[in-house]
Amino acid sequence: MDSSELYHVKQQFILGAYKPLISLALPPESSPDYVPTLVYQARAHLALNDPSAALSLLPTDSEDVTIKATSSLAHYIAAATPPSDENSEAAEAALEELRDLIVEIEGDDLEASERDKWLVRVLAGTAFARSGEVEEALETLGLNEDNRASVEAVALIVQIFLSINRPDLARREYEKCKKWAEDDLLLQLIESTINLVTGKEGYSDCNSFYTEQLANPSLSSTKLLTARGVTRLLRGEVSEAKSDLEEAISQGGADGETVAAYAVAATLRPSKKGEGDEWWSKLTQEFPNHPLVNDVSEKAGLFDEAAAKFNVPSLPTVTV
């Protein structure tokens, strides 16, 4: 059973309170909480797209499989962001390291807990999913295994299915997970994420979950603020959505998701002239590979293609 300190660290990571988590002092190296806390902090850096900070935390000579897997994931993200032919060799090398670790944890000689082994699978599955190897990611995460015992693995499987527009499969995994998992925080987050994507009951369930978590005085999460802002935006509560998103940005949470959501909100209900264009420009310049930017660019290209095929007839002339 986790200590209260480690439970709080885990809670912060699950709910996206990455910056407060990073600022926590590490426990003594002799503490059983040391390695798990170190790994959570490194993963928080990775969630903030800062692999160099994660690598600076992790010892290079450790034999702990969770530290090695986290390090390999950090090397992959560093090499794959932004993608380039020059970095592709380093990215593939990091993926091979993770594949080797999967083989290692499946052997009989490794002394590691089942929880640590599952964490290695989650970290490897994250890298495989990011690299576009969806089938390998799902296999690594134990899709269709009857003895799966990691809610975090289920959470990642759900995210993968949602990313390929299969909310039906995502909900199926969630319903299966409820049969063996405790009703913990991550399970509630999985349900809220599915409801946010599908719009179940007018987004009321996910909105209530985000509001409940944001009421926790010991938690400060820009991710939760953004999630509730998006939920309110989908419910048509544009002013309330802008308020959440502005607060997230003021707390240093101006990531791609928050900026994209605010650009939409500012377009729907601008507080000043040109606000929507200003935030759209910010999104395209700072996050050019964001899915919303790619989607709009693709649709603009299709419109131009269709317009080029349309011949505008000449205006009739009137003779007197």
TrEMBL record:
Q: Which UniProt keywords apply?
A: Cytoplasm, Cytoplasmic vesicle, ER-Golgi transport, Golgi apparatus, Membrane, Protein transport, Transport
| Record keyword Membrane present | yes
The record's listing under Pfam families reads: Coatomer_E (PF04733)
Which domain of life does the UniProt lineage start with? Eukaryota
Give the CC-aspect GO terms.
COPI vesicle coat; Golgi membrane
- Topology in the membrane? Peripheral membrane protein
Which GO biological-process labels does this protein carry?
endoplasmic reticulum to Golgi vesicle-mediated transport; intra-Golgi vesicle-mediated transport; protein transport; retrograde vesicle-mediated transport, Golgi to endoplasmic reticulum
Signal peptide start and end residues: none
Name one molecular function that GO assigns to this entry: structural molecule activity
Q: Where in the cell is it found?
A: Cytoplasmic vesicle, COPI-coated vesicle membrane; Golgi apparatus membrane
What's this protein's family per the entry?
A: Belongs to the COPE family.
Concerning PANTHER family, the annotation shows: COATOMER SUBUNIT EPSILON
What's the protein here called? Coatomer subunit epsilon
